[in-house]
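Model it.
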Amino acid sequence: MPVPKTVILPSRDLPTDTSEESFSNLAYPMDWEGIFNYIGFPAYMKPFSGGGWKSVYQLNSMEEFLKNMPKPNNW
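Modeled.
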């Protein structure tokens, strides 16, 4: 079975049981263009929790992603 190209992204907001040092290996701002060039479109976003296709949504462009995603302070 083919496996789609996958990228694991950090939480939009820092989880309460972490600190700034927990994410020290990440580069901000996120390279969204590079990420979407790698995985291509349509892209599917899925939260880490939840089963099956719950809360999964399709993105058809980077512009659609940037328009609809709320921006936390650390982006």
